[in-house]
């Protein structure tokens, strides 16, 4: 199966896809994301703004499946809730126009739960109905897949054939201890003056706990509401990018370019997928 990975980021869809298809092209305008994608997958995504993608270029890929994670800010709890009026929805709107002219056989979209019931959700559903495609709206959280992380997401699975029913696994979350680095990065500990100012607003967890809150793209800059912080005998620290990657189910061999800043790594992870959950969503299209 020939697959287009749109808003490709770290390549989460490619990881979730495994050997069930081949990504013939990936698209993302973020240089850090594309460098990370190339390092881990060996292919450099096309740095073209999707809002200007020509129909001829799209059709030249002859892709049967579109996998996409459009920007969630227009629909997320802490966003501006402008939906399709948000400028960050321009690429999605253009893709919906291309879909109207040249629809694929299958499409899977991932976004925050606020996408459900939005004007973007309604537009997508209208496009799918117009082309006689079957649609299933799914909701899932990594905490049901054995991962101690709360990251509820919605997946819109569409195909020209009915979806294959896949139950949620409902695996109990494992302790955070199994996701931590063997050697701590001491620079991740919060300074006393920072801790004194923000302590009561932080979500604190310990290694034996079996939960953590959703890590957002601003985790490297923000404190309150950006994700959990680990409390140890030495103090309170951020989770490292490697630890967040494990909590998202990324493979152990996943790497960032050495020159990439800490904030850039957190941003890419915050905009990424939970790989086991995305793989489960794809299971509704494919037999494993």
From TrEMBL:
Its EC number is 2.1.1.37. It catalyses: a 2'-deoxycytidine in DNA + S-adenosyl-L-methionine = a 5-methyl-2'-deoxycytidine in DNA + S-adenosyl-L-homocysteine + H(+). Keywords: Methyltransferase, Restriction system, S-adenosyl-L-methionine, Transferase. It comes from Geothrix limicola. InterPro entries: C5-MTase (IPR050750), C5_MeTfrase (IPR001525), SAM-dependent_MTases_sf (IPR029063). PROSITE patterns: SAM_MT_C5 (PS51679). It is an enzyme of class 2 (transferase). GO terms for biological process: methylation. Pfam families: DNA_methylase. SUPFAM superfamilies: S-adenosyl-L-methionine-dependent methyltransferases. This is DNA (cytosine-5-)-methyltransferase.
């Amino acid at each position: 199966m020939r697959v287009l990975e749109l808003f490709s980021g770290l390549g989460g869809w490619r990881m979730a896809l495994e050997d069930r298809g081949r990504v013939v092209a990936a698209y993302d305008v973020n240089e850090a994301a594309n460098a990370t994608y190339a390092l881990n997958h060996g292919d450099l995504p096309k740095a073209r703004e999707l809002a200007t993608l020509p129909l001829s270029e799209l059709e030249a890929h002859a892709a049967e499946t579109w996998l996409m994670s459009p920007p969630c800010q227009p629909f997320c709890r802490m966003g501006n809730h402008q939906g399709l009026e948000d400028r960050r929805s321009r690429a999605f709107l253009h893709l919906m126009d291309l879909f109207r002219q040249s629809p694929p056989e299958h499409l899977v979209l991932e976004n925050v739960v606020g996408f459900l019931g939005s004007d973007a959700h309604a537009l997508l559903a209208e496009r799918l109905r117009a082309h006689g495609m079957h649609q299933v709206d799914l909701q899932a959280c990594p905490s049901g897949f054995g991962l101690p992380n709360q990251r509820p997401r919605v997946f819109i699975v569409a195909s020209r054939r009915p979806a294959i029913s896949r139950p949620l696994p409902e695996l109990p979350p494992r302790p955070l201890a199994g996701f931590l680095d063997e050697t701590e990065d001491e620079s991740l500990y919060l300074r006393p003056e920072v801790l004194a100012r923000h302590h009561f607003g932080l979500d604190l967890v310990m290694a034996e706990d079996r939960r953590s809150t959703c890590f957002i793209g601003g985790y490297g800059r923000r404190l309150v509401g950006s994700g959990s912080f680990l409390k140890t005998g030495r103090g309170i620290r951020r989770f490292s990018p490697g630890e967040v990657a494990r909590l998202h189910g990324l493979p152990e061999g996943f790497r960032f370019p050495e020159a990439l800043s800490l904030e850039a790594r957190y941003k890419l992870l915050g905009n990424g997928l939970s790989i086991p959950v995305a793989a489960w969503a794809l299971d509704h299209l494919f037999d494993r």
